[in-house]
Amino acid sequence: MKRRDFLASAAALSLFVTDAWAAKKQAKATSSKATAGKARGSAGKGSKKPALRQKGKVSYKPREPVAHTADDPVIERPPQGTSASRLPPVKAPEPPSEWRTFEITTTVNLKNRSGAAKLWLPLPLNQDTLYQRTLGHTWAGNQANASMRRLPDGDLEVFYCEWPDSGDARLQLTTLVTTADRHFDVTKRTVAPEREDILRRNLQASQLIPNDGLAFQLGERILGRIKDPVAQAKAIYEWVVDNTTYDLSLPCCGTGDVRRQLIQGQYGGRSADINGLFVSICRAIGIPARCVYGMRTGSSRLFRSLGLSSDDATHGHHVRAEFYVPGYGWIPVDPSDVRRAISLEVLSDRDSKLISLKKILFGVWEMNWIAFNLGTDVVLPGKNSAVPFLLMPQLESSGSRPEAALQYSIRTRQVVL
């Protein structure tokens, strides 16, 4: 082929390719316009496809009140698009691999007493969980009779014994409990939802924990426009940590009187008071929540002040809290221990250790602690009057001098089975 013939052929081919590409591009543009026209027509006919957003200022208004109430809980109408309605795939809970076993020995001596006596001791949770299992109980003493009693609602089990004459009454109760650290994983959801009656019970007010009035007003002020239940609970948790004080002068775990805190506007106390405040606000906005009453059993890996320094657990009682979100189950928290660490470890609010602890204790329980029960306004078997919660040994006797006190001690040690 001559050179001029080759150049003519190449020019013709180039023109052909250019014309074909232009035709293809024009056909594609025409097809796009037709599709857009159909979309606009479908939107006008009630199609679910969204119309194009118009330019200009857009105002965002919630379709319904952000804060729920105890009468309109999040378990019945969870806000659309939140963690309660947009759930991750179902994954069966995996049992922990690391467990620690503790032997707890409670020794009771009744001195300077006369007449009959009745004694109630709280026992660890009677149902096995992924973080705690009770292995067994043994007891010895000179009591006339003794037995384990479970309350009808299943939230509490007690050891009950009595003496016809308490002049030299003695008892030693030993319990074996195994525990594993408890973690909340936002990527997993529980398989089975909680029973409706249990959720309802943990939305109701108790003698010391209100769920309306000032608690609801405080919850509304804390949440603002937050809709997601987990984010709502996180906001309440952080507010409680930032606005309460830990009072070391109070005995045991405090009184747990949240109603008084709300009326006086002075928030804080000890674990029953601070974690009770968290539970009260959660219940007021419609999130089931509850206090969990228990006792420290060992040293802490987080802070020395959050565990025992010896085997003496007589004054180691501690209350924790948890809240419920559909799909995720019960989520553990402990704002009280954040405040305790600030008080005893002398930490500033900007300390990196404190910031880390604050993040950890929303969703984690270090199980150097055992849970006793979930009961509130407890009517003990054989006793007519109710106690707000059962954490300490309860004694009832006749014929004793008022100054005669219950003497008891609790020792704990970690054992290898």
Question: What features would you describe in this structure?
Answer:
The protein is of the alpha+beta class. It has two domains: 100-178 and 376-415, Sandwich (Immunoglobulin-like), CATH 2.60.40; 183-366, C8orf32 fold (Roll), CATH 3.10.620.30. Helices cover 27% and strands 25% of the residues. The protein is built from eight helices and 18 strands. The protein has helices at residues 3-44, 196-201, 214-223, 229-243, 258-264, 271-284, 335-345, 352-360, and strands spanning 100-110, 117-122, 132-141, 145-150, 157-163, 169-179, 182-183, 245-246, 268-269, 289-296, 317-325, 329-333, 364-365, 369-373, 378-379, 386-387, 394-397, 406-415. The strands form six sheets. Strands 3-6-1-18 form a four-stranded antiparallel sheet, with no helix packed on it. Helix 3 crosses helix 6 (271-284), helix 4 (229-243) runs antiparallel to helix 6 and helix 4 (229-243) runs parallel beside helix 7. It is globular, with a radius of gyration of 31 Å. The relative contact order is 0.17. Mean pLDDT is 83; it is low at 6-18 and 31-63.
Q: Give the helix/strand class.
A: alpha+beta
Shape descriptor reads globular
Q: What does the main sheet amount to?
A: 4 strands, antiparallel
Proportion of strand residues: 15-25%
- Individual helix count: 8
Indicate the CATH topology of the largest domain.
C8orf32 fold
Could you give the topology of this structure?
Elements lengths: L2 H42 L55 E11 L6 E6 L9 E10 L3 E6 L6 E7 L5 E11 L2 E2 L12 H6 L12 H10 L5 H15 L1 E2 L11 H7 L3 E2 L1 H14 L4 E8 L20 E9 L3 E5 L1 H11 L6 H9 L3 E2 L3 E5 L4 E2 L6 E2 L6 E4 L8 E10 L2
Parallel strand pairs: 8-9
Antiparallel strand pairs: 1-6, 1-18, 2-5, 2-17, 3-6, 4-5, 7-13, 10-11, 10-14, 11-12, 15-16
Helix pairs in contact: 3-6, 4-6, 4-7
